[in-house]
Amino acid sequence: MKIMVAYDGTLQAKEALVYGMDKAREKGGEVVALHVFNNSMFIDYDATVDAQGIARAEAEQFINEAKTIIREKGKGVKASLFSTEGNPTEEVISF
User: Fold this and answer.
1) Looking at the DSSP assignment, which residues form a beta bridge with residue 4?
2) Residue 90 contacts by C-beta under 8 Å, 6 or more apart in sequence?
3) In a 3-state reduction of DSSP, which class is residue 49?
4) Rounded to whole angstroms, what are the CA distances from 28 to 13, 20, 71, 89?
5) Which of 35, 66, 67, 88 is the most exposed place for a label (fewest CB within 10 A)?
6) What's the maximum distance between 2 C-alpha atoms anywhere in the chain?
7) For 75-90, what is each residue's pLDDT tens digit?
8) Are 13 and 5 in contact (CB under 8 A)?
9) pTM of the model
């Protein structure tokens, strides 16, 4: 069994990642977490010049949080984390 978790750094995503690892441990499966940076939201974005840079730094923080959750809560579970860019809905479906 393979469990995919779309991870965006929210409390719900953190809980889903932990829940997924618990279920994978219970059933002998694995977890694949996917973080998608929505780069298209910055096209014609009317904000500060460095808005995309700030958002990328925040996304990197989310990725690091996911790595920590996997390391601390994923003992005995095969878990991996992937990160990509694009439309989140399309990227999750194609992944």
Assistant:
1) 32
2) none
3) coil
4) 21, 11, 18, 28
5) 67
6) 48
7) 999 999 999 999 999 9
8) yes
9) 0.88
